[in-house]
Amino acid sequence: MDRLSIHEIIAKIEAEETFHAVSDDYSFTLKVDKYVPYVCGAVHDGHQFRQELWDNCLHTEYDRWYEEDPETKNMIISHPILISGCDSRFEYDLNRDPSNAVFDTAWGKQLWKSPLPKTDKTKSLQKHANFYQVVKALISKIEEKFGVCIVYDMHSYNWQRWDREVPTWNLGTSNIDNTRFGEQVESWRQMLASIELPHDIKQTAKVNDTFQGNGYFLKFITNTFENTLVLATEIAKVYCDEYKQVIYPEVVAAVEQQLKVLIPKHADEFYRKFKA
Prior knowledge:
Blueprint: E1 2-4, H1 6-14, E2 19-23, E3 28-32, E4 38-42, H2 61-67, H3 72-75, E5 81-85, E6 105-106, E7 109-110, H4 118-146, E8 149-157, E9 169-172, H5 178-193, E10 205-207, H6 216-224, E11 228-236, E12 240-241, E13 246-247, H7 249-274
Parallel strand pairs: 1-2, 4-5, 4-8, 8-11, 9-10
Antiparallel strand pairs: 2-3, 3-5, 6-7, 9-11, 12-13
Helix pairs in contact: 1-4, 4-6, 5-7
């Protein structure tokens, strides 16, 4: 993996080069093993939290981990195009628009002992902007090359804090064109429902049951590109103990192995239906 500037990453995309890169500020990674009409993203996978913010932060390391999406990158690690955040959403949230990306409060709790200096906010928002420059270049190249693109936007959520039964998988579709893409949503839901997990973990997949797909990553791509479908795909954190901060690697591996088959299959169906 190479450490590259935003300019260098975009130049490689525009030249259709294959590469593995980390941005020069270590805020995100991008690998392109092959140009295909689908992209995997894990914008909340990151846990880095830069040191100058530590003493001013009221949330613990566990508080941050609990609201992040650990292991979502590893669930889609085998796919040819993968973009993933490295920084914690508590520094800046890639799934929120720039004006809301740096939190003052997080999940009902004040985040900072004293208000964040403007220089810290500016530094974080520059990383947010850099990420979206690359997303724009990447999707532009794929639409130019294939006519269409589908993005698997991977997230996870804390299921144990709900006071009702919630699905293992949730698809958020309120901001996509459901008239145009409804069949692809249902096909993806059915594929997710077919995934088998260890330890008799209950397997259900629903649409807009816990989250509706209101994230900025989805909205930015959907509003910028006419022929790209983003599927906001949330797995309940059945792959860890969300209270004890223990990951179950055998569950993560089971998800990864099955998505290795299902994502290309679904993406191929999408491409054959919608290619120009």
